[in-house]
Amino acid sequence: MHEIKTVLTPIDFSANAVKIAKAAAYVAGAFKARMHLIFVVQSFDDYSGFLMPPVNMPNLKEELFESAQQQMNTFMEQRQKDFADAGLSGVQSKVLSGDVAEEIINYADENNCDLIVMGTHGYKGFERLMFGSVADKVVKNACSPVMTINPYQEECESNET
């Protein structure tokens, strides 16, 4: 295995995103690596007219992207102490659009990310049926190693006692 200089962490702005970002920051800090956080706005082009009535897709995409960028900015501001505590500075963030798993893999390749740290849970129910497991697709197709984190691990441990 080669030296880990850059860690990529995809987030989804769920309550679990904070746990995943903290864990990834700890890993990046342990390796003295740079950290990148990304959020991918799911592309719904393939589903327009299938699941919902036709809408003005360009406006919807733009609004979703702008909203995601605002959420990313807020998330980054709120996590500054976590990043500093892990010994990180200059954490990069980016909002992308497209197939979530493909965009994560492409970003990792294009930015020479040495490790992807991501959560195992995101979509549930109907959304999981439609979009599949993003973590599963990334693990199976990424060129770099992938560390998955079960954000419910604390809950599992507390149920055992």
The structure class reads alpha/beta
Oligomer: single chain
Estimate the strand proportion.
15-25%
Individual helix count: 6
Largest beta sheet: strand ordering: 3-2-1-4-5
Mean pLDDT: 85
- The count of DSSP E runs of length 2 or more, i.e. the number of strands, is 5
Distance between the termini: 37 Å
Low-pLDDT residue intervals, each spanning 5 or more residues: none
> What is the succession of H and E elements?
EHEHEHEHHEH
Largest sheet: 5 strands, parallel
Radius of gyration, whole Å: 16 Å
What does this protein structure show overall?
The protein has helices at residues 15-31, 57-85, 100-110, 125-131, 134-141, 153-160; strands spanning 6-10, 34-42, 92-98, 115-119, 146-149. It has a five-stranded parallel β-sheet, with helices on both faces. α3 packs parallel to α5 (134-141). Helix content is 50%, strand content 19%. It is built from six helices and five strands. The model has no long low-confidence stretch (mean pLDDT 85). α2 links the parallel β2 and β3. The chain has 161 residues and is an alpha/beta fold. The chain is globular and about 45 Å long.
